[in-house]
Amino acid sequence: MKYISTRGGISPISFSDAIMMGLATDGGLIIPEKIPDVTDKLGSWSALAYPDLAREILSIFVGDDIPPEDLTRIVQTSYATFSHPETVPLVDIGDIHILELFHGPSLAFKDIALQFLGNLFEYILDHRHGHLNILGATSGDTGSAAIYGVRGKKNMKIFILHPFQRVSPVQERQMTTVLDENVFNIAIEGSFDDGQRIIKSIFNDLDFKDQYHLGAVNSVNWARVAAQVVYYFYAALRVTATTSTEKVRVCVPTGNFGNVFAGYIALKMGAPISKLILATNENQILSRFFNSGVYRRDEVYATISPSMDIQVASNFERYLYYRVGENAPTLTSMMEMFADTGELKLTNCTGTTGIDDQFIAGSSNTAETLQTIRSLFNDSGYLSDPHTAVGISVARKHLKKDEPTVCLATAHPAKFDGAIERALGKNEAHHPSIDKLKTLPTRCVVLPATEEAIREHMVYNI
């Protein structure tokens, strides 16, 4: 399989080259030349354990770029770090099936992709005798998952930007208590969108990118999407097998559109999914788009689900590429318009209730999210983090009797103990690895949210 850019400016490249490139050199995002149809494989995949299913699906995206035995080893090593024997267990709470994606080292769904990506980077660098300086921005969970995936690995350094005092205290400590010599935490005096803007600008300086061997771990990296596609198949196949239904709905709490875009790819590949339910908090740029066709930058609101406090979703360009008929010039013009005006509109809407019949979109405000945490705990004893609660709150507005709903649980509730205490009047959320963080030393530098400051800090430490 070969890979191209959404903006049409690169020749087809291999999987390994796509992963090392991260953001395409023409400023676009990397995608496969063709999305594979795997409907003929669903029967043989339905009972596979998660690592085995991951190997089968990832091998399609990798092609002949990595020998099968090496890919198997990378996948097995990546998911051996998860604490649950099923890797991503399904929990039935009555009207909804919850897919728990938080049993990795950082207790967030980002581990699914970033454990794999860290091992993949190490493998490629070893075979190419190279080195890499990873640059990424986080709204909370990506940072710690990326750091845990890369810490201590040879031939790599990682620089992670997070918005100063705008992530949860646990998220901050998960990042800043990692003292490995190859890890650099940077708190920027601004928002996640500021960090994302800085990252993209630096990556678009191709001379700087080449000189300092920059690589990306944000969801602009195709490996992140490919690894996340797996759990959509896993959940849909397991639930349809146990409920004797043909398809499921999957609800995804999202801010940066990477997680739900992986679901979109799974659906296009033939996963037994009928609808993707997109759920946002008060930062409604994505839910507004899917209900109106208008994608408009707005103020970033701080909420109890901080990983979703995003206005400019970096993966949205990939979706838009398919919606404009894989027309790179049209897509490029639209993205340039958005960069100039902060708004774009999709006029060729095909949906009967929104702009795309494959999506349902809604939002949950703070009061609704807290109530969802409270009612879940009181009614079923299940404790949800606020991001997952956003998803469940929206999903329950769109239940269909003959079609089961799966909601993705994106983080362990102990990462957001403040929200849990606010919802329940006491903190019921604990995890041994989280409790240990309170006494560990930290290392982090606070810098202005400027490209110059980040460049200078990187060059000094490289």
Note the topology.
Elements: E1 3-5, H1 15-21, E2 30-32, H2 42-45, H3 50-62, H4 68-79, E3 90-92, E4 97-100, H5 110-128, E5 132-137, H6 141-150, E6 156-163, H7 169-176, E7 183-189, H8 192-204, H9 206-211, E8 214-216, H10 222-243, E9 248-253, H11 258-269, E10 273-280, H12 285-292, E11 294-296, H13 316-323, H14 328-341, E12 343-345, E13 359-363, H15 366-380, H16 386-395, E14 405-409, H17 417-424, H18 432-437, E15 445-448, H19 451-461
Parallel strand pairs: 4-14, 5-6, 5-8, 6-7, 7-15, 9-10, 9-14, 10-13
Antiparallel strand pairs: 1-2, 3-4, 11-12
Comma- or semicolon-separated keywords:
462 residues, five-stranded parallel sheet, six-stranded mixed sheet, single chain, Rossmann fold, alpha/beta, 15 strands
Descriptive overview:
This protein has 462 residues and is α/β, with parallel strands linked by helices. The protein has a domain at 90-106 and 223-433: Rossmann fold (3-Layer(aba) Sandwich), CATH 3.40.50.1100. It has 19 helices and 15 strands. It has helices spanning 15-21, 42-45, 50-62, 68-79, 110-128, 141-150, 169-176, 192-204, 206-211, 222-243, 258-269, 285-292, 316-323, 328-341, 366-380, 386-395, 417-424, 432-437, 451-461, and strands at 3-5, 30-32, 90-92, 97-100, 132-137, 156-163, 183-189, 214-216, 248-253, 273-280, 294-296, 343-345, 359-363, 405-409, 445-448. The strands form 4 sheets. A 6-stranded mixed beta sheet has the order 3-4-14-9-10-13, sandwiched between helices. Strands 8-5-6-7-15 form a 5-stranded parallel beta sheet, with helices on both faces. Strands 1-2 form a two-stranded antiparallel sheet.
